Each structure stands twice: as C-alpha cells, then as structure tokens.
Amino acid sequence: MDMKQSLAQLIHEAIEDCYAGVDSLPSVEDIAGFLEIPPEKEMGDYAFPCFKLSRALHMGPPQIASTLASAISEPDLCEAKQQGGYLNFFFNRGNFAEQTLGVVLEAGENYGAGEEGNGKTICLDFSSINIAKRFHIGHLSTTMMGQSLRRIFQFLGYKTVAINYLGDWGTQFGKMLCAYKLWGNKEEVQNDGVDALTRLYVKFHEEAEKDPSLEDEGRRWFKAIEDGNEEALTLFSWFKELTLRDASRVYDMLGITFDSYNGEAFFNDKMDRVISELKEKELLTISDGASIVDLDEEESGMPPCLILKKDGATLYSTRDIAAALWRKDEYNFDKCLYIVAYQQDLHFRQWFKVVEKMGYEWSKDLVHVSFGMISYEGASLSTRKGHVVYLEDLLKGAKEKALKIIEEKSPDLENKEQVAAQVGIGAVIYADLQNNRIKDIDFNWDRVLSFDGETGPYVQYTHARCSSVLRKAEGTEAAEADFAALEDDFAQELLRQLSRFPQIVREAALRYEPSIITRAVTELCKAYNKFYYENRILDAPAGVRQARLELTKAVKQTIKTGLYLIGMEAPERM
Ligand code: ARG
Fold it and tell me: What per-residue confidence (pLDDT) applies to 384?
C-alpha cells in the first residue's frame, strides 16, 4: 500500500470515530481523491481539505481539522496538524522512505506500469514516410514521438498497433516511372536506392521544362498504376521496397518496428465506400466540378473538405477517411493517434469533421498529436536551399561524435562502439522529446551532446553512476537497512520524486506528451546527483549504507524505465 492510501485509511478511521452516526461520510476512495499535495513543503506532504466535510457535518473546516488532528495519532506514519481549514500531514520520514522503497523495489521493472489499458487498443499512425524520398529530419519527431507513445501505452496495458502509413500515392510516382523507363538503369537503382530515384525525378523535371509532353507521359504512367497495369505495379512496388530498405537502416538503429505498412495506395480500392456513404448521407456537394463536403465555415471556421477532384481523382483527405473507416473495422481501436506536424492541423480537423458528419460517434477518438518544427543548427529545413539533413547521417554523426567524447572521457571502456551508439542516438532522442510537443526545436550538436545540463548524456551518465555505486557495493555484506538514514532533505526529495513516477507516466499518456517523462527523469537525475554529493554511500555504517544503496537501486531502476519509455537505452557504464 502506498502512503496516500495509508493516509486515506487513517483519515477515514478518524472521521468514523469522531462523527459516528453522521450520514453521507466519504469513503476511503473519496478521501484519497480529496488528498492534495501542497504547493509548499512547509505545508506538509499531503493536505486534506476539510471543507469537503462541512456540508455533511454542518461545521466550519477549521473546527473539523482541529478535531481530526487531535484524533489522529500514528507517529510511525505521520504527524497531523491543523492549519486553517486544512489537515496537513507530515510524513514520518523514515517510514516514508521504507514504504516508498518497498513499493518501487518490489515492482522492479514494472514500477509505474498498469493494467488500465487491458482490453483496449490504440492505433498509432507515425513516421509515415514517403516513397522515393530519403528519410530526413523532418520525420524525426513523428518517429521518436510515435515510438515513445507506443511504449507508454503498452506499459499501461494497452494493445498498440504501430502503423507506418506510407506516402505511396500521387502523380509524382507516374513521373518517376516515366523517368525510369526513359533513362533508368536497373543496377544503379538497385544499388543506390532512393538516391537514384531522386536523381531520376530531378532529371524528369529538367527535361520536362524543355519538352512539356513529358508531363502527359508522366500522367499516363500514373494512370497505369491506378488501373493496376502489371508493369507499372511491379516497378512501383520495387521502388517501395528500395525506400523501405533504406528506411529500415534508420529503424534498426532506433529499434523501431511496425505492425502495418498499409499506406495510401493500400486504400486505393477502398474509396468507393467513402464516396457512396457520403452520397447516401447527402453530405457530398459539387463545387466547380469537384466533390466537397461543406463544413459550415461560419461555425467551424473551416473551408470545405475536398473529396474528389474534377477529374474524379481522390485526395489525401479521401484516403485518410477510407483508412480510418478501415482501421476501425480492422482493429476496433479505442483511440487512433496521428502523430504528424502541426502544418497538417487543418487537414486533420477537416476530415475528422467529415467522419463526425457521417455519423460515426468514434470520430471523437481520432486524435491529431501535433508537434512543432525542427531546425538544424539554426537553419530551417528546406530542400530548395539544400539544407536537407538525412536522419541516417544525423544518427551516424551522433554516434561518431559520442565515440570521440567517450574516447576522451573513458578510454578504457570495453564496448565503446556500442555505448557510443546508445549515447549518440539517445542524445538525439532526448533533444527531440525534451520540450512540449508544440515547441519548435533547434538541433544543436554542442548542446545535445553535452554531459552537463539537461541532455541525454547527462541522464544516461547518472544511470551509469548508480550502476557503478551498486557494482562497487557488490560483495559488501548485506545489512538491515536503517531507513532513518534517509531523513535528510536530499533523500526525501528523491523519494518524493520516485513516489510520483506512476502519476507522471499517466499524465504523459493522457496528454500524449513524452516530454513529461523526459523532464521527470531529468529532475530525478538532478536530485540523485545532489544526494550523491551530499552523502557518503559505500563507506557509511552498514545499516545506513544499505538504506542508501536501496535508494540508489530504486533510482537506477526508475531512470531506466523512464528512458525506455522515451525510447532511449540505459548503458551500465559510460
Ligand atoms: N506521409 C505524410 C507526410 O510525410 C504523413 C502522413 C501522416 N498520416 C496520415 N494518416 N495522414 O507528410
């Protein structure tokens, strides 16, 4: 049982004793729900607002607080004081330490996990790369954030479906086929993959400027894909394969896998359902030859959602609607998350609204998890200006830079390469998931790889420090822990943070915000480092040492879990 629960029980007993016979007294659960963590430490560890009882008791809160304060006498657990209309509780610090560490260490790797998601399914549409394009850092956030959210929800017992909704539909693919047929070289494309395809695409545009008839040729090839022409499809699925081959190098480095790669093209033959349902429900209107769904602009502030172009071609929205209907049938999700940059905000709001107008009550379960822009060393990303930074190069660069630092700092480390990958890639993930989603990020190497301040290496280093303390303690004789040794402010702050961790994980899930975990883990590390500098551990008396080691173990384990939840590794040594 945790401290809050024990307190609620204690308060409940006191109320029953003092006010026996009164109707509608709160239950233990009610009381647990009323308990607050006060804003100031001087106000105790928990506060019970007595006005919650005024109604039932017909008494002022201060009077109730003072009656209850004198009724509660459990010095091993806490001290209860009346302060105004509040009953403030000051934990017995030793007991708080014992209870908290008991809970954390018993749960082990599962500390903070839960079962509230059992039986529920969450679809996560993330990373969703585009065919024949290199994976660049514009797709960094969706990839990291999707992976982190997936782990967070799994940790809470949800079934998750990770979907890479490939961008594999559009007229540009007709142009690419056309270019390949005219100038392509099989071997070159096979070897260079996406780079060769990009070169072909660029050439197509150069040539089309001189010879506009090429555009028609490109359209013809796109039509061939649409119509299921065998040659076109074979070539196109080869292009897809090559793109995924390149992307999987990045996914491997990050340890990411997907449950589905059903992209836009997969839904090509599933559009009729959308169109006929929209017609049936009288939602489709013709405007300038195109089919649209009116979204009551005055009220919603949104222009109509385009469903079919003049020539009958479907759009990005049409395909997203078809995909959502299909996913609901296939997975019966409780939530479907779209982890996509805020630039697509209107797109999602529009087609979510269309699904709502179609009468699907589950449209409320479609969530656009949006995030800000990323720039690199102060320069915004733009293909035209040549500032494209490929994710693979970024991650490799991170590893190399980390290796240099490690070679300086710990030349004797055994598995330097492996640790360098963990630290370098971890640094990138940390930087990406450090701030609120919506904040724009500027990626700066010096800051990201620094061992001081709020960085990935700093957090990983603290984990390695805990590991090192525990390693050195191996072989010393185990003793009964003296929890009174954890009464100092530094240890208490650590314990307070440890006890909050399950709440942190839930908040991150509720708000689809991995940064809540990143920040909590960082705070935990800062608190541990303060504790570490203030207290002797290994050469303290046996009982004291044991208590501090148990605290260290609980911290190490919680840092590791937190890092796992944001997608980072936790090296034992670095
Ligand atoms: N491929 C798109 C892009 O790179 C992102 C797709 C997001 N998912 C979706 N269901 N629309 O911009």
Answer: 47
